[in-house]
TrEMBL record:
Keywords: Hydrolase. One of its GO terms (molecular function) is acylphosphatase activity. Its EC number is 3.6.1.7. This is acylphosphatase. It catalyses: an acyl phosphate + H2O = a carboxylate + phosphate + H(+). It comes from the Bacteria. Belongs to the acylphosphatase family. Residues 4-90 form the Acylphosphatase-like domain. InterPro entries: Acylphosphatase, Acylphosphatase-like_dom, Acylphosphatase-like_dom_sf, Acylphosphatase_CS. The lineage of its organism: Bacteria, Pseudomonadati, Pseudomonadota, Gammaproteobacteria, Nevskiales. The active site is at residues 19, 37. Pfam families: Acylphosphatase.
Length: 90
């Protein structure tokens, strides 16, 4: 049974391809979910899938893509199960 986690990443995470890179990582890990920019400059998302794949995404989110500077990562269990695929939301 898949698990789901909601995350919020803060720091220099907008304008550095963070959403697109998160989608690429999630798809490579066979995770479902979504990612979006927030008005406060953070990036929020929901990821669902195998526990080991979720842990790999969590570790990746701590650094993000090369141009990002992650200050904090909030990573909390969530009951929502997203539809198949991983989308970048506006």
């Amino acid at each position: 049974m898949p698990a789901s986690y909601r995350f919020r990443v803060r720091g220099h995470v907008q304008g550095v391809y963070f959403r697109q890179s998160t989608r690429q990582q999630a798809l490579a890990l066979q995770l479902d979910g979504w990612v979006c920019n927030r008005d406060d400059g953070s990036v929020e998302g929901l990821a669902s899938g195998a526990p080991a794949a979720l842990e790999a995404l969590r570790r990746w989110l701590c650094d993000g893509p090369p141009a990002a500077r992650v200050e904090t990562l909030d990573w909390q269990p969530d009951a929502d199960l997203p539809p198949p695929g991983f989308e970048v939301r506006r």
